Amino acid sequence: MGKSEKSKINIKERVDDTTIDLSLSDISEIPVSGIANFKRATILDLSSNKITSLGKTFCTLTHLTKLDLSKNQLKFLPEDISKLANLRHLDLYNNKLEHLPLGFGKLKSLRYLDLKGNPLTPALAKIVGPCLTQKDCQNAARTTVKFFAELQQTINEDRERARLEELERQEAEKEKEQAEAVKEKPKAKTKRERKKEPKPDVDSAANSQVENATQIVKQSDKRTTSFGKMFFRLFLLWTVFAVGVIFTIAYSPHIIEGFIGKLPPTYQTPLLYHLEKIRQEIWKYLK
After folding, report:
1. CA nearest 51: which of 7, 4, 81, 6?
2. Which of 15, 121, 197, 222 lies 20 to 30 angstroms, CA to CA, from 205?
């Protein structure tokens, strides 16, 4: 929908006390600037439209407490959805969502979440639950927010641990360099001692060293050629394997989840948790 079509929507006519009803308006873009003018309207109904993205400025509508985005075509939610701290009711029924952003863990006020009719990954669907009744949707809000809050905390702790380990490593290297720098240098020989020392046969020593070096180079050339081929093959195989694993986790997590599902139940939950954590990190860097 272009700007001319968006301007046809008279938002003022759609406002009823604390509610803005833009459902069934055939819009693909959300008129955020117009909605922002009505601060008293904390309920926003955008259901049954053609919305594929919330846009860059939607999450500035921090006064919203109830948001209905059901029956649209959303494929993802922005990370800064965490700014909607007052949101208590979120209806995302019948969209095209597979994942949720880490920022979901900051929606501490959320009490109702409906994600039915979305192609969620099996791991996320298990966390969200069925959402068949109002109680199910209330449980979905609580468990989903808790999961992403804990996931974010774990990621932050891992980053902090890695940062501290790097600082320790740098400090250890610095101390090692300083220790080597302060080592006692050998004392200089006296003039008398230098006179007593026989003069080295520079020419013969140099020739001997050249011959030895030539032999070593010849032998190392043979070994290097063979080792280089083997190393290149191993590196190529490892690269193909690593890329395959990363893309499997990012785009086809159900394959790995299928293997996890064959394990005893006591191992499934932690493995699914860490799989989702890794997938979130991969998607973060892919974006």
Report:
1. 6
2. 222
Query: Taking CA 72 as the corner, what is the angle to CA 66 and CA 73, rounded to the nearest 5 degrees?
Result: 130
Residues 125, 129: Cα–Cα separation, whole Å: 6
The Cα 232–Cα 245 span in angstroms is 20
Enter the tokens of residue 279.
């997938």
User: Tell me, what's the pLDDT at 234?
Assistant: 76
Q: Judge whether residue 178 has pLDDT over 60.
A: yes
Q: Report which residue type is found at 262.
A: K
Give the span between the Cα atoms of 83 and 24, in whole angstroms.
26
pLDDT, greater one: 88 or 238: 88
d(C-alpha 85, C-alpha 61), whole Å: 10
Task: Please report the beta strands in the chain, taking only residues with DSSP state E, as ranges in sequence order.
Answer: 15-16, 19-21, 43-45, 66-68, 89-91, 112-114
| Best-predicted range by mean pLDDT (153-167, 204-218, 248-262) | 153-167
What is the distance in angstroms between the CA of the first residue and the CA of the last residue of the chain? 25
Cα 84 to chain centroid, rounded: 21
Q: How far apart are CA 35 and CA 268, in angstroms?
A: 45
Exposed/middle/buried for residue 15 (C-beta within 10 Å: 0-12, 13-18, 19+) = middle
In terms of Cα–Cα distance, which of 153, 137, 92 is closest to 118? 92
Q: In terms of Cα–Cα distance, which of 45, 47, 50 is closest to 65?
A: 45
φ/ψ of 208, rounded to 5, equals -65, -40
Strand 19-21 versus strand 89-91 pairing type: unpaired
Place of tokens 């948001």: 67
